[in-house]
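Input record (one chain):
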Amino acid sequence: MTAHSDRFLAKVADKTLTVGVVGLGYVGLPLALAFIKGGLTVVGLDIDPRKPEAILAGETYLKHIPASDIQTALATKRLSATTDLSQAHRCDALIICVPTPLTAAREPDLSFIENTVRALGPHLRPGQLLALESTTWPGTTDEIVKPLVQSFGHKAPEDVMLAFSPEREDPGNARFHTRTIPKIVGADDEASRKSAEALYACAVERVVAVSSTRAAELTKLLENIFRAVNIALVNELKLLCEKLHIDVWEVIDAAATKPFGFMPFYPGPGLGGHCIPIDPFYLTWKAREVEFQTRFIELAGEINTGMPAHVVRRVQDALNDPPLSDNGQPIFTPRALRGARVLLLGVAYKADVDDVRESPALAIRELLEEKGAQVRYHDPFVHKMPRTRKHGDLEFASVPLTDDELAQSDVVLIVTAHKDIDYAHVVQKARLVVDTRNACKSVKQDKHKVVRA
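The corresponding structure, as predicted from the sequence alone:
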C-alpha cells in the first residue's frame, strides 16, 4: 500500500471523499445517486449542458430514474453537476462512464474515452483514483488510459491510481438496480485495487475483485458475448422452425421446464441496447491483434445482424401471400411492400424502456423505406425518435395508437413488446400483424391475422 492509497482509504472510511462521475447517462446518473446514498459527495460532470441543468433543477431525463431520487440527493447538499471539467481537480476519485460505440467499419471507437481523459488531464492531481466503466477490449486501461494520464506528468499508479469496473446497468429491470448488482473491480496493483474496492463498496452491496484491469475488461465482454451467442442460437433455430412449421417459442418454453442444464433465451428482430450488439466486436477486433480468429463469436454476430432483413422479408411475404381466414380465403387482396403503410409497434430496444440505442427498429425502418414502404411508429415510451450516431436522419415522432391508425395500416409490425399495449385489440383492429416477439401468444380471436417473424 502507498501513502496516497492510505489517505484515500481514510477518506472513504470517514465519508469525506468526493467522487467525480464523468458522463451522466444511463450508467453515470444511477451510479452518482448510489454514491450519494452511500454517504459520499458527488460531482457530476457532462459536456451536454442539458444533463447538469436538469439535475440541478431536480428533474430526471431517464424514465427509470424518478425525479424524487434526484431531489432527495440534492437535499443532502452532497450532489452537484456541471459542464466545467476543471472541477475534477477537487475530486478524490474520477469515474468515466462514456460511450464506446463502433466505427462504420464495426471496429472499436475509443474516441470518447480518449477525449475524456485528455480533457481531465490538466486537472488531475496526485492521490486520485481514475476508474473506467465503459465497455472496451482487454488492455484499454493499461494501453490507452495509462499512457494518456502519464502524458500529463503523472505516474500511474504511483501518482494516479487506475482501475476498471465494468458497468452492469439494466434499465427497466425491476428486480435488480445499481446497489444490488455485484460490482466487478480490477486493478494492476494492490493499492489501486484496494482503493477501488473500498470506493465501490460505498455504492453497492457486493464488490468482486479480480487480479487485473484486463480480467475486469474481459469479464464484461464475456457476460454480453454469452447472451449474444445464445440469442443467435435461438434466432437461427427460429429460422429453421419457420421452415419446419414448428413453434419455436413453444419449444423453448418446453425446454425451460428442465430444472438443470438449460437457460431460456428468446428470438427477436435483432439485437439492441448499448452492450450486446457492440461488445462482441470489441473482442474480435482485439483477437485479430494476436492472430486469433473468434469464429464462434463472429458467426453469432452475423446471424443477429441479419435478423432485421429477415423481418422485412417476412413482412413482404405476408403482404404478397396473405394469411388465410377460417374459411380458407386470403384475409385481404395481395399487395406489394412498395407503397404499403407499415406501423411499427415499439421502437425501444427492449420492453418498457425509452432507450433506442442500437434498436433493431432503426434498421428495420431503414430497410422498409428502402423498399418503398410508408413507415410510422407508436411507442408509449419513445415520443420522438432521437437522432443517433448511425441513423442521424431518422428523426420522427410516435403516432397515437388509435383504431383508425390500426385500420389504415396495411401491416402492424410488432418490434418491441411493451407490456401496457392491448395486443388483442391491436389484432382485432389491424388488417395484418407481423409479430417478432410472440406478443400475441395469448390472443384468442383473429389469430389468422398474425404472422410470426
